[in-house]
Design a protein that fits this description.
The strands form four sheets. A nine-stranded mixed beta sheet has the order 3-1-2-4-9-8-7-6-5. Strands 13-11-12-19-21-20 form a six-stranded mixed beta sheet. The chain folds into two domains: 136 residues, no CATH class; 181 residues, 3-Layer(aba) Sandwich (Rossmann fold). It has eight helices and 21 strands. A hairpin with a 6-residue loop joins β11 and β12. By secondary structure, the protein is α+β, with helices and mostly antiparallel strands.
Length: 333
């Protein structure tokens, strides 16, 4: 079994070629039903998982940091993000090329056996997500921990720290006829949001079991990107009834920034992006998350949606919110 297929990740065309069946199965699952045929597609990011375990030849390369070496516009990361994979990332013209080899130290090998859900998430991150996130950042798109969904003619961007009920609320909206580009991770250019493909993790998902009592399922009716017309900040208050109130733009931006930095999915991304920026001279050493959040909060009307013990009960309040006229009419670029 192998994988040679395309994912549209963070607005980038990512083509994966993996002929090593143990990893191919993980990647096929991580694509959450969004894989497309790769034949004839020009890739922005190309990932090849090599079925060998030899180290990359770095003779003559310059040490960049502990576990990283650089030459020209190529960077080798040893045990990238603690995944057990060595990565050789090379910028060639307008394409990022990634070669991956499974070479885990003893600790990572044991963790891969004992902590299966952690291992699956790390493999998806270093092979399917982080390279596309970084290449999107090279073109000015900024990662956010948020999700966008259509509700009638409105497109709210749902923000808030993990555990507030965003995935549950978004899936209920999709089941009601909406379309979403992501429930968890996306990038933005200040106007549109581009989703990152991954399975949705919710209680009762029915698929692979993950942390916090959740399990996975594909995101139905997924689209590659959406243009939000309002920012909705979610917060959870046990015992409360769902309610909506206007949010101060500065507070809304702070929530979006804090939720992004609190996200466990991105915890290992920041040093990954910094190493590639330093080694290649491309892209920001640190993505301008604060600036992007402030711009979205400036351009979009912002509201706070309070959710109680059952986040799905907030869908009616969300519908009521998006049915009201937009009060702020500032033109967007």
């Amino acid at each position: 079994m192998g994988v040679r297929a395309l994912l549209v990740q963070a607005g980038e065309r990512l083509v994966v070629d993996c002929r090593w069946s143990p990893v191919a199965r993980l990647l096929a699952e991580g694509g959450a039903g969004a894989w497309r045929p790769a034949d004839g597609t020009e890739a922005d990011v190309r990932v090849e998982v090599e079925p060998q375990h030899r180290p990359f030849d770095i003779r003559g390369w310059r040490p960049l940091a502990r576990g990283a070496h650089v030459r020209d516009r190529s960077v080798v990361l040893h045990n990238a993000c603690g995944s057990g994979f060595d990565l050789c990332l090379t910028v060639v013209a307008e394409q990022l090329q990634v070669r991956a080899r499974w070479r885990p130290p003893a600790r990572e090998r044991i963790a891969a056996l004992l902590l299966r859900s952690r291992f699956h998430l790390l493999v998806r991150a270093v092979l399917l997500q982080y390279p596309a996130l970084w290449w999107a950042g090279h073109y000015g798109r900024v990662p956010l921990h948020a999700g966008a969904v259509t509700l009638g003619r409105s497109v709210p961007l749902l923000a808030g720290p993990g555990g507030t009920g965003r995935s549950t609320l978004l899936l209920r909206a999709v089941a009601d006829g909406g379309r979403a580009c992501a429930d968890n991770l996306c990038v933005t250019d200040g106007r549109d949001v581009f989703g990152l493909v991954e399975p949705v993790r919710v209680e009762g998902g029915g698929g692979r079991r993950m942390a916090y009592g959740r399990s996975e399922r594909p995101l139905p009716s997924r689209v590659d990107s959406l243009r939000p017309d309002r920012l909705v900040v979610l917060c959870r208050r046990p015992g409360a009834r769902p309610s909506v109130r206007p949010a101060d733009p500065a507070r809304a931006a702070r929530s979006l920034v804090a939720g992004t930095y609190m996200a466990g999915e991105l915890r290992r991304y920041w040093p990954f992006a910094a190493a590639l920026a330093l080694g290649t001279g491309l892209g920001p050493a640190h993505p301008p998350v604060t600036g992007a959040a402030q711009e979205l909060a400036r351009l979009l009307p912002a509201d706070e949606l309070v959710l109680g013990d059952r986040p799905d009960e907030g869908l009616a309040a969300l519908y009521g919110l998006v049915s009201r006229p937009v009060a702020r009419t500032e033109e967007r670029p």
